[in-house]
Design goal:
Blueprint (H helix, E strand, L loop, with lengths): L4 H4 L2 E6 L1 H18 L5 E7 L3 H8 L6 E9 L12 E3 L10 E9 L3 H11 L5 E10 L11 E6 L4 E2 L15 E4 L2
Parallel strand pairs: 2-3, 2-5, 5-6, 6-7
Antiparallel strand pairs: 1-9, 3-4, 8-9
Length: 180
């Protein structure tokens, strides 16, 4: 596989390598598989940023999985949250009595995940846990407990492994910080 040298040159630095991500996602999959052993797991995924994370994670979990994808964003093309969450909730999908795992790429302000947790809890699931690949260490106004976390990172804007800036850089196999 040829390296993505063209877009890698847009990075100021690589924060997490593809190997580091692979190893941590594998460990998370093992823990989730153990915690939900014998159950059917309903996974609710925030797209598009979590695309690579969910793909790699779910292929390593040896459980029956029901997958529901949602579109939700508070960034709307910028570098910081707008403070307004837009959710594209699928019609007719219910979660009552199900074991639900909410997956996202990154916990930043907590606004999006807390809004989704609140909405999912209103559906009366049997259980609800949250997993993110990245937990950005910063002050938050919105509480969102994490059950599974890949990495804690500094308060920097990251791209790669599904995360983008204005639609670009999702295909990077690593996670990095853009040049200014």
């Amino acid at each position: 596989m040829a390296p993505l040298t063209g877009i890698l040159s847009d990075l100021n630095r690589v924060l997490l390598t593809a190997d580091q991500i692979h190893d941590r996602v594998s460990a998370m999959a093992a823990q989730i598989g153990s915690d939900y052993a014998g159950k059917v797991l309903t996974v609710v995924v925030l797209m598009d940023g979590a695309l690579f994370f969910v793909s790699d994670l779910l292929r390593q979990i040896d459980l029956p999985i029901r997958l529901v994808t949602l579109g939700a964003s508070s960034y709307h093309g910028g570098l910081e949250s707008s403070g307004q969450v837009q959710i594209q909730w699928p019609a007719g999908v219910r979660f009552a009595g199900e074991d639900v795992l909410l997956l996202d790429d990154i916990l930043d302000t907590g606004l999006t995940l807390s809004a989704l947790r609140e909405r999912l809890l209103a559906e009366s699931p049997a259980s609800l846990r949250t997993a993110v690949l990245l937990d950005k260490k910063r002050p938050r106004n919105h509480d969102c407990p994490l059950d599974y976390c890949g990495f804690e990172i500094a308060d920097e804007f990251v791209v790669g492994y599904g995360m983008d800036y204005q639609g670009r850089f999702r295909n990077l196999p690593c996670i990095g910080i853009l040049k200014p």
